[in-house]
Amino acid sequence: MEFRIEPSSRVPIYRQLADQIRGAIATGQLAWDERLPSVRELSRTLVVNPNTIARVYLELEREGILNTRPGLGVFVARPHHELTKRARRDRLTRRVDGLLTEAVHLGFTSAEVAELLAERATRFQWEQSGP
Question: Is the pTM of this model over 0.90?
Fold first, then answer.
């Protein structure tokens, strides 16, 4: 997986990288237990301060997306659902409501939004296999 940073973007570098890692996992570009580059290695590749990379890895580890194995590196964590189904649904509902609010303000119809969601959903890895 190749990560890219857009220095001229208004989005902070750590957020760009965190979003790319989340997206790569969701679309199956990064697999469970796949090793990510070390902090030093990725900071050299992207020409970014190592503290920025460490911050991203720590944030994603706290979210349960990555895990660190001492002496081995940082790996994509296997999915686990610590939140209840209701809590996960409530969290998703808030995000969907935000998306729908923006779609209304942009002038989309509900049919156009549904069509776009269906189209985009095909790009993501929905069913997880394994333990």
Answer: no
